[in-house]
């Protein structure tokens, strides 16, 4: 199987996942007590004529599948309807917040990959006291919830030392990165500890393999052995964990966004759920599911690039 066929199959499978997810997202919201009519009417009882007019205005008098496919067709063109609370297009509500959440997740991912892999390699290659210290640091990172880390960072580095702003996403690329530094650290520390443990275990396992011992017996430099024979083979579980971590960051950003008042997609989703703003909930959840699916596709492609044995031609 060649790359085009591999990609076509992956994209077809991902499209099927998105179709099922969109159906569930759209349908489950109509199973809550009262449905959208309870929110639209509020505390009013409404006359039959008023109820009929509201149902017609929001197309609630149409069959469910007709409404679903109409919503799906609009969503494919970037139209997620209008917010019942804000009276704005859902796409407009999400556009600015999507940039904030996307940059936050990318920033946190960079910290996780760099710090997690570095600590894991340090622990695996420097056994003894260094490994003990690294393991202790990883345990502290894993045991500390993001909201605790966020509060500590705000108190120490924002309010105490004044090195970083307390809240807000900033304006412009450089200013946004400056504002998102503390939130990204708060979001990433637990995942740094987890990835460091996975990296340490994977690298440690590869260091004990027979081909590594053979390379050492041939007098090859240790740096060359680690770079050519250890890191590549140890990277598969690291990539897997990184992919799962990024997907988790998308959902976990809700807490951090609330602490630092970033007003991203996570904060918008929480408010929409509390306010029963159905159109916003549907739009945000569909975007998050799409991001999760894309991350899984990227992980699949990385497998084939890292290990030729997992190439598209042999994976089928």
From TrEMBL:
Query: Which named protein is this?
Result: ABC transporter permease
ABC transmembrane type-1 domain: from which residue to which, for each copy?
Answer: 98-299
Family the UniProt entry places it in? Belongs to the binding-protein-dependent transport system permease family.
Upper lineage is: Bacteria, Bacillati, Actinomycetota, Actinomycetes, Kitasatosporales
Q: Where are the transmembrane segments?
A: 104-125, 137-164, 176-196, 236-260, 280-299
Q: What is its main location?
A: membrane
Topology within the bilayer: Multi-pass membrane protein
Localization, per the record, is: Cell membrane
Q: Which organism is it from?
A: Streptomyces carpinensis
The alphabetical list of record keywords is: Cell membrane, Membrane, Transmembrane, Transmembrane helix, Transport
Q: Which SUPFAM superfamilies match?
A: MetI-like (SSF161098)
């Amino acid at each position: 199987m060649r790359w085009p066929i591999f990609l076509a199959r992956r994209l077809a499978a991902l499209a099927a996942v998105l179709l099922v997810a969109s159906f569930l997202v759209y349908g489950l919201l109509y199973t809550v007590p009262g449905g959208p009519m309870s929110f639209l009417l509020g505390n009013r009882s409404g006359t039959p004529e008023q109820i009929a007019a509201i149902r017609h205005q929001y197309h609630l008098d149409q069959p469910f599948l007709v409404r679903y496919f109409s919503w799906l067709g609009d969503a494919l063109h970037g139209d997620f309807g209008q917010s019942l609370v804000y009276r704005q297009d859902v796409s407009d509500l999400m556009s600015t917040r999507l940039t904030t959440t996307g940059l936050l997740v990318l920033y946190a991912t960079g910290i996780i990959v760099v710090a997690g892999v570095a600590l894991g390699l340090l622990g695996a290659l420097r056994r003894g006291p260094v490994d003990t210290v690294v393991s202790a640091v990883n345990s502290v990172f894993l045991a500390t919830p993001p909201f605790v880390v966020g509060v500590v960072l705000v108190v120490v580095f924002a309010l105490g030392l004044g090195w970083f702003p307390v809240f807000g996403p900033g304006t412009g690329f450089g200013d946004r990165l400056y504002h998102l530094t503390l939130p990204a650290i708060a979001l990433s520390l637990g995942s740094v500890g987890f990835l460091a443990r996975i990296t340490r275990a994977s690298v440690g396992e590869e260091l004990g393999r027979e081909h590594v011992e053979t390379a050492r017996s041939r007098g090859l430099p240790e740096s060359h052995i680690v770079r050519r024979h250890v890191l590549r083979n140890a990277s598969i579980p690291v990539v897997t964990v990184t992919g799962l971590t990024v997907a988790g960051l998308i959902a976990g950003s809700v807490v951090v966004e609330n602490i630092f008042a970033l007003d991203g997609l996570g904060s918008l989703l929480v408010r929409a759920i509390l306010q029963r703003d159905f159109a916003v909930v549907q739009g945000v959840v569909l975007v998050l599911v799409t991001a999760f699916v894309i991350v899984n596709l990227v992980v699949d492609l990385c497998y084939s690039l890292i290990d030729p044995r997992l190439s598209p031609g042999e994976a089928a």
